[in-house]
Amino acid sequence: MIITPANIHIESIGAGPNLVLLHGWAMNGAVWQPLVKSLSKQFTLHIVDIPGMGSSRPLEPYHLHIIAEKIAEMIPANADLVGWSWGGQVAMRLALDHPDAVRRLVLVGSTPCFVNKSAIKNNTDTLPDWNAGIAPEVFSKFADNVDADYHKTMAQFLTLQCMGDTSARSTVRLLRKKFEERPAPTTQTLLKALAILLDTDLRAEVASLRKPTLLIHGDRDTLAPVQAAHWMMQNLPVGYLRVMAGASHAPFLSHQEQFIDALVQFLEPASH
Predict the structure, then answer these.
(1) Which helix (H) or strand (E) holds 146?
(2) How far is the C-alpha of 154 from the C-alpha of 180, rounded, in Å?
(3) Which residue of 200, 236, 252, 270 has the smallest Cβ count within 10 Å?
(4) Which residues have a Cβ under 8 Å from the Cβ of 16 and sit 6 or more positions away?
């Protein structure tokens, strides 16, 4: 079943407890397709195209709070959420803003802050230096490249996600195939989403994420270094960490069986 009210494309399939799948920046829900056959036997999957990506229309204004709010309106209450990369930040924002919508979280290759930052002092908090991300100038250059040569930049981005992975070549092929299966986001939407990635820093709010949270991270991830997952593990109220050896930024594709095992073990669908 596919529903697209509110211009958000969600594909629902399977039987069992509700499991919402949120993809990463520039991608779409097709990226989860290799796992659907296995997971839909144990869960009712709700595979979302995040607004502006795949078959979902963009939103105005394009902000993380609004994206999370629109998705929260569309998914079943008290669902489990899996968010990959940027989709993990969407999932965290959704859990913080709409706690009744979320039962548990699984964050894959995600981070509270993708970009390295100097220490921040405000009235209530001091956030120390953050070096578990990417240099801001790399992001700025990437934005310029998206604007200048969309297709070449996207090809480089898909390759970058798999750098260092033990099965990099086949994972890149899979990512490219899934990216091309649905409408490509506009350059304007990609740049707006990239601005969200550049600006988002959820570190001060991680301690308020009171939902049980599983972190699944590749030890060779270059886009969201594994140090970010270790930091989250130390700061989440109820956190569990599974580091996958030999995996990069997309462990659910490169290490599918291990990923499914970790997910099922955490969510225990048969016990419902």
Answers:
(1) helix 136-148
(2) 11
(3) 270
(4) 41, 42, 43, 44, 269, 272
From 165, 221, 248, 255, active-site residue: 221
Exactly one of 9, 46, 249, 255 is catalytic; which is it?
249
**Domain tally for the chain?**
1
Range of the domain at 51: 2-271
Torsion of CA 102, 26, 242, 120, to 10 degrees: -80
249 noted as active-site residue: yes
Helices (H) and strands (E) in the chain, counts: 10, 10
Q: What is the CATH number of the domain that holds 157?
A: 3.40.50.1820
| Predicted confidence (pLDDT) per residue in 213-267, tens digit | 999 999 999 999 999 999 999 999 999 999 999 999 999 999 999 999 999 999 9
User: Residues with Cβ < 8 Å from 37, sequence gap 6 or more?
Assistant: none
- Chain-centre distance for alpha carbon 130: 20
**CB-based burial label for 257 (10 Å; 0-12, 13-18, 19+):** exposed
The pTM (predicted TM-score) of the whole model is 0.95
Helix (H, G, I), strand (E, B) or coil at 66: helix
For residue 113 the two structure tokens come to: 């802050």
Q: Is 85 a catalytic residue?
A: yes
- 219: annotated active-site residue: no
| pLDDT class of 122 with cuts at 50, 70, 90 | low
Residue of 56, 85, 110, 248 marked active site: 85
